[in-house]
Design a protein that fits this description.
Helices cover 66% and strands 10% of the residues. With 405 residues, it is of the alpha+beta class.
C-alpha cells in the first residue's frame, strides 16, 4: 500500500537556485599589473604585452566567481606570441604585394588599396571569431572546459552581410545584426557537453533602445545642417554656427554609455547553457560613472605629464642645455630621446587608465550585477572539446580588432 501511494504521488520538480556572481579582485593589484607590464613594454618593443594580457586575464578569471566557484584561464603568453607571429606571416606578404602594386600602378594607387582593405576587413571578422574560440577553450569552470566549433569564414560572411545591412539602414538593422551574430556564436559554444544558446531577439533590443538610435540620428542630422549653414553664413554668425555644430557633434557621444548599458542587460539576459539562465540589473549610471572617471583621470594624467615636461624643459634652459639646432650633440640626442619616451609614457598611461576603468571596472560591474539561475544543471556536464588554435587571437591582435582585454 505504501509503495502504491508513493508511486501515485507527483514528482516534485527540482527547485531553481539563484546564484549571484561576484568579483573579488582588488583594484590595486590590477593597477600594479598594468603599470609594471606597460613599463616593460618599452624596452621589449611591445612584445611584453603577451605576458601582460595573460596576467590580466588570469587575474580577472580567477577573481570571478559563481556561487563561490571561480573560473580558470589556462592560456600562456607563449601561445599568444606564436599566434601573433603566425598572423604576421599571413599579413606581411599581403602588405608587400600591396606595396608592389602601389609602385606599379602609381596613378591608380588609391584603387590599389581597395583589395587590401577588403582582405584585412574579412580577416578581422574571421580573427575575432577564432579569438573568441581560443579564449573559450582556455576557460575552465568546475574542471570542465568551454569550447567552440563553427566556421570562422562562415561567421565572417554573416558579419559582413550584416555590416552592409546596418550601413544601408543607417544603423536601424544593428539590433538584428547583434542578435543574429551572437546566436551563431552561442549555438557553437559548449560547456563540456552542454550546448549554449542565445534567446535575445533583435526586436527586443530595438524596443529597449530605439529612442537612443533616433536621438543619435537627430543629433547627426542637426550637426550636418549646422555645418552647412555655417558654410553659407557670413560675418560674425559663421564662427557661432561652427561652434554650435561642434557642440552638437560632441553630444552624439553622450548616449553611447546608455546604449552600451542597454545592450549589456539584453545580452546577458539572453545567454543560455542548457537550463542555466542569466539575468542582469546593470545600470546606465554605472557605465557613465566609469566613463567620466576615465575622462577626468586621463585629463589629470595629461596635465601632470605636461607639467613634468615643462619642468624638464625649464631645467634644460636654466642650465643652458638647449643645443644649437645646427649642431648635433649628445644633448640634442638626450632631448630627442626624452621626447620619444614622453610620447610612449603618454600612450601607455592612457592605455593603463582605459584598461583599468573600462576593462577591469566594467568587468567587475557587469559580473556583480549578474545572477545565474539553475546552476545545478551544469552538474550533468561531461568534459568535451579540445583547445583551439592560436591563429585567430594572433590575427585579431595584429589587426587590433576586438581583442578585448
Amino acid at each position: 500500500m505504501t509503495a502504491s501511494l508513493s508511486h501515485d504521488l507527483p514528482l516534485t520538480p527540482p527547485t531553481s537556485h539563484n546564484a549571484s556572481m561576484s568579483f573579488s579582485g582588488r583594484g590595486g593589484d590590477f593597477l600594479r599589473l598594468l603599470i609594471t607590464g606597460s613599463l616593460f613594454q618599452i624596452p621589449t618593443f611591445g612584445f611584453y604585452r603577451f605576458w601582460l594580457i595573460t596576467k590580466l586575464r588570469r587575474h580577472l578569471w580567477a577573481n570571478t566567481q559563481i556561487d563561490g566557484e571561480a573560473f580558470e584561464y589556462t592560456a600562456t603568453a607563449k601561445e599568444l606570441l606564436i599566434g601573433f607571429l603566425i598572423a604576421l606571416a599571413v599579413l606581411v606578404p599581403l602588405y608587400i604585394v600591396y606595396f608592389i602594386l602601389g609602385i606599379m600602378a602609381e596613378e591608380q594607387y588609391a584603387f590599389a588599396s581597395v583589395p587590401l582593405v577588403v582582405i584585412t576587413y574579412v580577416l578581422a571578422h574571421y580573427g575575432s571569431y577564432r579569438a573568441r574560440k581560443y579564449r573559450a577553450s582556455r576557460t575552465i569552470f568546475r574542471g570542465v572546459r568551454f569550447w567552440m566549433k563553427g566556421s570562422g569564414w562562415a561567421y565572417a560572411m554573416r558579419a559582413i552581410l550584416w555590416d552592409l545591412a546596418t550601413l544601408l539602414t543607417l544603423g536601424l538593422a544593428l539590433p538584428w545584426a547583434m542578435a543574429s551574430l551572437e546566436r551563431y556564436r552561442m549555438r557553437h559554444t559548449y560547456f563540456g557537453s552542454i550546448q549554449g544558446d542565445f534567446v535575445g531577439t533583435g526586436w527586443s533590443l530595438f524596443k529597449r533602445g530605439w529612442w537612443v538610435w533616433a536621438l543619435g540620428i537627430v543629433l547627426l542630422a542637426l550637426t550636418f545642417f549646422l555645418f552647412v549653414a555655417s558654410d553659407i553664413a557670413t560675418g560674425s554668425g559663421k564662427p557661432a554656427l561652427q561652434g554650435l555644430a561642434g557642440v552638437v557633434g560632441l553630444l552624439i557621444m553622450a548616449p553611447i554609455p546608455l546604449a552600451m548599458a542597454i545592450f549589456t542587460r539584453w545580452h546577458i539576459d539572453g545567454l543560455r547553457f542548457g537550463d542555466v539562465t542569466a539575468a542582469s540589473d546593470f545600470r546606465a549610471g554605472t557605465y557613465y560613472g566609469l566613463f567620466f572617471k576615465l575622462i577626468f583621470s586621463s585629463l589629470g594624467f595629461l596635465m601632470a605629464l605636461g607639467l613634468l615636461a615643462g619642468l624638464i624643459g625649464f631645467l634644460f634652459a636654466s642650465f643652458e642645455l638647449v643645443p644649437d639646432m645646427e649642431e648635433l650633440s649628445w644633448t640634442a640626442f638626450s632631448v630627442g630621446l626624452l621626447v620619444v619616451l614622453g610620447y610612449l609614457v603618454a600612450l601607455l598611461g592612457l592605455g593603463v587608465l582605459q584598461r583599468y576603468f573600462l576593462g577591469r571596472g566594467l568587468w567587475a560591474a557587469i559580473v556583480t550585477s549578474t545572477t545565474v539561475t539553475n546552476l545545478q544543471a551544469v552538474d550533468a556536464a561531461v568534459a568535451a572539446g579540445q583547445p583551439a588554435g592560436v591563429l585567430g587571437e594572433g590575427l585579431a591582435d595584429a589587426l587590433d580588432f576586438n581583442v578585448g582585454i
